[in-house]
Specification:
2 strands; single chain; Zn2-C6_fun-type_DNA-bd_sf; elongated; about 625 residues; mainly alpha
Amino acid sequence: MSTLSRFETPLLRVSRPVSACQRCRGAKVKCDGKLPACTACERAGRSAECSSASDLFAKGKERSYVASLETRVEKLEKQLVQAKARKASMNASGAQPWPSPESHAAPRVSSRGAQRKEASNVDDLVADFGFLSVNATARDFHGFSREMSFARLVLSTSSVLDMPKFVNHVLPQRHEITPLIKHYLENIHALYPFLSESRLFQSIDAVYQENGRHALPIDRWTTRLVLATAVASLSTKRGDTQYQDAVRHAAAALEEIETVVHPGSIVGIQAILQLVLYAMLNPRHFNSWYLIGLASRVMVDLGLHQDPPEELRLKHSELDMRLRVYNCVYALDRSISLVHIRAFSFTDDSASVTHPRQRVGSPDTSLVFLHDLNPAIHLSHLRQIESHAYQKLFQSRRPALEEPWPIISSSIEDMHIFCSKLPDQIKNPIKKLLRCEALYSSILILSPPDLDDDLTDYGKFLIFEYAVEYADLMSSVGSDAEQFAFYTSHDMLRASFVVKRLLALLLSDFALFFGSSVSRPPPQAPTSSGAPVLQQRTTGEMLSRAYNCLNLYDKILEYLELRFGYADPLKEFRMQSSDVRQLLKASYDKWNRNPPTTGHDHYTLAGPSMDRRFA
């Protein structure tokens, strides 16, 4: 059978009836939902009268889903007729169906143009069927009195608590939002640039000019959620003025969700990503893990995880936006999955995209990202390092690695190189955020399930040093100097994981870290790789650093609880660390009364730390 004949006689299957027809419903007999008429109506000779009407389909609007499909089929049939006519014309003239290498340039241009048109038609068809499939599938769920849309699907899966209702949604004065937009662009958009800056300002102008008379739903959605994210990032306590203003903006944006959030377009992905950023700052109302999962699947459905074929000849602006959206989905999916220690939405092997890091330092870097978006390029690089190690150590289906250290060592070395090469143009708060994430990922990489019982002394000391450095970097969280850093609820989860890992080591290996007063060679890496080298420290210094580090974590978790409303991590930490802190203090007092006269007996990193630029 030829390829064309398969399309002429497709095999159509209906997994479930859309709804029983009126005649079968009235007669209370089983309706198989066969189209254009069910079997029961055919046998009764009433095929022309077979129609469906229920609470989902009012009279006069029966089977609108089927009507949409029929319209699509008619369009495809016309295309097939045109294709047959072209083929017959070519056969009659003796022309070749595809231009040969000797053909002149004009037929090639025509063929490529036809290919681009065909690719565009296919994309439209896939997008339409994707939307129809979501709407059609939703009809099979019980408990809905009306058609389920993709936007309602997004809300139903990601909502934690319903957003409060407000009588009106008054916008602040235009001059009042100027510093908020500036803050968003410099500190949030710089990390996640999935919106077009020019399009953002056009949306703001449309919303504020003539009382928003000419503003589109996407303009109101974009403006409101940018303001909500900017204001929420400046909140210092859940329930304060900034928090309440952010909730009001987000509630106003949600009134446009039915029009804005839909599959089959980059705009739909951008809309979901805006919700992801807001959910990271306000986990009380939305679950960011579900949201980024939906955004990832829409992104894959559109093919943004693959470089587009050259035949499409997309504009530079279109290629730029495809790359931005893909890398933001990638970065957020990796970040959210890592902090929850869950599976990624898609693997690295399934994607084939030219990453921005491959252009860092090259003359055409500005073609991909603007100069002030360098943080996004480096964040994407960090996510690739994390993703590679996490998939190898945590998500591989193969048997446990006999020797995981080469992967661990290589990844940690890459983390150190990444931190050492952060450019001076990146603001210090953003650099500090990137280093904190690198430290968290390093500790996570050093903690794979299969290695927990066989972790070497060297690995344990690395975790200790990274946990201390992480606390030092995060110790200023909440201060005025750090108010423009993009701290989210995920930083609470990261800090909680790091200190739990540190406490577990101190409880299980207290003697290893603090029990000896005899000088001994420091533990070395299992291989002669570029992993960090350890140097010796006194027991007193180790005890003091550990005790002060736990006090810093108490302060960090207390602030993050105040800001994001997570009470459990702080309670668990104080309960689990109480005995350890008392033991550390008693051991330090004992050591201080009888300190050794010579020698060093414990260790820290001899090489540059991940925070060396903050020295």
